[in-house]
Design goal:
The structure is a homodimer.
Chain A lengths: L5 H5 L2 H4 L3 H8 L3 E5 L4 E3 L7 E7 L2 E7 L2 E8 L3 E3 L1 H6 L6 E4 L3 E7 H10 L1 H27 L2 H15 L5 E3 L4 H7 L4 H11 L4 E4 L2 E4 L2 H8 L3 H4 L4
Antiparallel strand pairs in A: 1-8, 2-7, 3-6, 3-8, 4-5, 4-7, 9-11, 10-11
Helix pairs in contact in A: 3-5, 5-6, 7-9, 7-10
The structure holds a DNA duplex.
DNA sequence: CGACGATTTGAATAGGATCAATGGGAGTGG
DNA sequence: CCACTCCCATTGATCCTATTCAAATCGTCG
């Protein structure tokens, strides 16, 4: 890793509070690289050699079984992935690929584990991060079990709208095929779900979506902070 | 908490490696109680006042939205629940009720957080536990997205069979309505799924299930260690 | 025995998946 | 600049799975 990159990495919340010494020991053997899009970073079932941190760009976590495949989550800056596998010294449960050109930090997992042993502040930061990851999956799981496909889409649109300033116009952050998989539906079904939402003021124009009647959409979506809020 | 209970609690993996002093400080204000079945222990949305540890019995974690309700997980001894909410000092994402008479340990969450600050060994144990909880939810989520209802049931039966000694006869650990909800289907559908599995050697007799053709069942279920193994 | 809840079965329906075909941009090469 | 191609998205038609509603059966407990 280049010396010039260190200050940027040090500013990341996960590494901000750790001791100087721990920081130096971790980043001796770390990589900080830019990958083009559609690069497979890890594959499920392989041993967890690195902890990954997305600094710029976007990474898709996906999984497969029985020949089917699904998107599990999208990781945006600054987010980690595969933290639990690293802590457990186990195998990855999910695969990861870049879906844009992305700057990725890779830290050998044994260094992470050693740093946790030594550095209480870092251990605390890791616990916070892991707890947030856990709660994010629980929310996804709740959404999938308790909501219909149309409701999941409606809430997702409301979430993106909020995240992008609440103007009523939002840009889908990835292509529709990925969004469909993330929401647990077939791409064809996503199209139909958008049509179903038309009477609730959802106007789709390519990857731009206008919400012209948020009140009606919320009535249908019944957003729930225990599912939809990013940090709670 | 009664003095006589301390050795039993100390033997639990989560509290085994912590320092004596931390242990004492935590269990001054802890409760160790036996609850009858069907007691609501916590409700989603409430602040996380306690960390819960199931020492005997069984606790159902469930969640609701839009008037629907679903079972998220069953916690068996010795397992914790609601750990992430405690660590984050946030609200519970799930509700919990006993589904048998259960002995439950309740530790005030501020004591947990303070102990993590002070005690590295305890922090490490908490990290392991949390990482396992995370991976358990990821596996559930994968199963739900990648498998049909019948496949989920088939794999669950294989798992219970293994956990109970692999004799080919197993006892369903909770009633069918709960199992159905856990697997993400309606109770009626669970009945039908059992019928679908009859040609694969699945014989149901009340809450006892005999697997008379495990090879055929595995052919259908396609068990996957990255979804079905309890610890990996 | 009688009552209640859990489970099973049946029939009708809805939601989502699959298959097939069409439309529409973005990028490529002439 | 324009045709060509390819891939994504949409639409239509059909099929299948799972849900819903209703009723019957089974078991357990008082």
């Amino acid at each position: 890793m280049r010396l010039a990159d260190l200050p940027e990495v040090r500013a990341i919340h996960l590494f901000r509070s750790m001791e100087e010494e721990t920081f130096n020991s971790i980043f001796k053997a770390a990589y900080f690289q830019t990958f083009p899009e559609q690069v497979d970073l890890i594959e499920e079932g392989n041993p967890a050699d690195f902890l990954y941190v997305v600094v710029e760009g976007c990474v898709e976590l996906h999984a497969k079984a029985n020949g089917r495949e699904t998107t599990m989550a999208m990781v945006l800056p600054v987010g980690t992935f595969i933290l639990a596998a690293v802590l457990n010294d186990s195998v990855y449960l999910m695969s990861a690929r870049t879906c844009q050109k992305s700057r990725i930090l890779m830290i050998p997992s044994q260094d992470i584990r050693a740093a946790i042993e030594k550095d209480k502040a870092f251990a605390a930061a890791i616990i916070r991060e892991l707890a947030n990851c856990y709660r994010a999956v629980v929310k996804e799981h709740k959404g999938l079990k308790l909501r219909s496909a149309v409701e999941r889409l409606a809430n997702r649109l409301l979430r993106y709208n909020d995240a992008q300033g609440g103007s009523g116009s939002l840009l889908l952050p990835f292509d529709k095929r990925t969004l469909a998989s993330l929401l647990g539906m077939a791409p064809e079904n996503l199209s139909r779900a958008f049509n179903t939402l038309k009477p609730y003021g959802v106007v789709v124009d390519g990857s731009t979506v206008h919400l012209t009647d948020i009140k009606a959409l919320k009535m249908l979506a019944k957003p729930n902070s225990l599912i939809d809020d990013r940090v709670i």
